[in-house]
Known about the structure:
Blueprint: E1 2-3, E2 6-7, H1 9-18, H2 21-42, H3 48-74, H4 79-104, H5 111-117, H6 119-174, H7 178-205, H8 214-248, H9 251-285, H10 306-331, H11 336-358, H12 361-375
Antiparallel strand pairs: 1-2
Helix pairs in contact: 1-4, 2-3, 2-4, 3-6, 4-6, 5-6, 6-7, 6-8, 7-8, 7-9, 8-9
Amino acid sequence: MKANGIEDFDSYYERLQKANGEEYATLPEDLKQEVQGHVEEATKQATPAVRNAVQQEANTLYSVMDATREKEQYYTPSPKTWKEFKKGEVDHIHQALNSLGSLVGHSATHAKENLDSRLDEVMDHTATVVHSFRHATSFLHREQARIETESLAMNDDILRIKKNLKDLQNMMAYAQNPRIQKDGEAILTETQKMMTGFGEMYALSQERSKQFRPFRVAEHMEAAQDAVHKAHLEMDTYLTTAKAAVATKSEIVIQTMIGKIRKAAKKGHSFMAGLRESVMRGIQKGKASYGVISRMRFAMGMEPRKGVILEADQMKKLDDFADDLVENLARSGKTPDEIQKMSKDLVKEIQKSLDAAAKKPQIQEMLQENMKGMSR
C-alpha cells in the first residue's frame, strides 16, 4: 500500500518475496524514485542551499545503491540487504524528510516565515535529513563488504575441502586396509557430488529469468554455503586426528576417523541434492513449490545446533536489556512498585508484538512446516 508515493514496509517486503528475477532488479530503482519524490516534496519551498545539501546526499546514496546492485550481480543476490535497507534506513529518511517538509515542504503554509523566524529549526531538520542519508549510505557500504566477505569465505571453504581431498588421497596411498580404501573412495565420490551440487546451486543463484525468485533462492544458497562451511570444519577436524594416527601407525584410529568423514560426506551430498531439487522445483513450478527455509538446517555431528546457539545468544541479550532497563528506572527515581507495573506493561506489549509477528503469512508457513516435521 502506498500513501503520498511512499510504500509501507509490509507491502514492499511482500513484493520482495514474490519478485522474479526481472522484477527483483527493479526494486532498488523503485526505492530511488520513492525517496527522490519525497526529497522534492519536502524541499519545495526551501532555500537553494538546503535543497542542494539534501539532493547531494540523496545522489550519493543512489550511487551506492547502484554499486550494491553491481556487487549482487558479481557475487549473489542479497534480498535481505534490501529488506533491511527499506525497513531500517529508507523509513528513517522518510521520517526526517517529513519533519523538514512540515516547515519548507510543498504543503507548508508558512514556509517563508519559517525560513526567517525558525531558520535554526529548519537547519537542524536539514542536518537530520543529511545524517539519515549518510547512515543509509554507510549501511550499504557495510552490506557490500559483507556480500564480498561471505563470497571470499565460501571460496576459502571450497579450497580447504579440495586440500582435504588431496590429503585423503595421500592417506589412502599409505593405508593398506581395504576398509579404509573403500571408505576413502566413497568420501571422494560423495564430496565431489556435494561440490558439484553446490556449483549448480551457485549457477542457479545467478539466474535472471522470470521463473527465478531471488528471495527464495538466496535462502537456499545461504543454507548451501553453511553446509559447505560445516563440511570443511568437520573434514578438517577428523583428518587432523587421522594424520596424527598415520604418524603413530594406528590404523584403527584412521579407520574410525575415515568412517566419520564418510558419514559426513554422504550427509552433505544428500543435503545439497535436496536444496538443488527444491530450487529447481520452485523455478519450474513457481513460488509455492520452494522448500521452507526453517526446514533447511544442516547440523553436522560435531557441532551444536545453530538454533540452540541463537536462542542462548538472544536470552543473553534479553538479560542485558533487563539489567539496563531496571537500572535506568532506578536511577530516575522510580519505586519498586512503579518498576513492577512498568515491567508488566512492557511484557504485555512484547507479547502483543510476538503474537502479531506469529500471524504473518511467511511465519505461519514456516510454523506449519515445522509441525509437519515434528509429526514425522
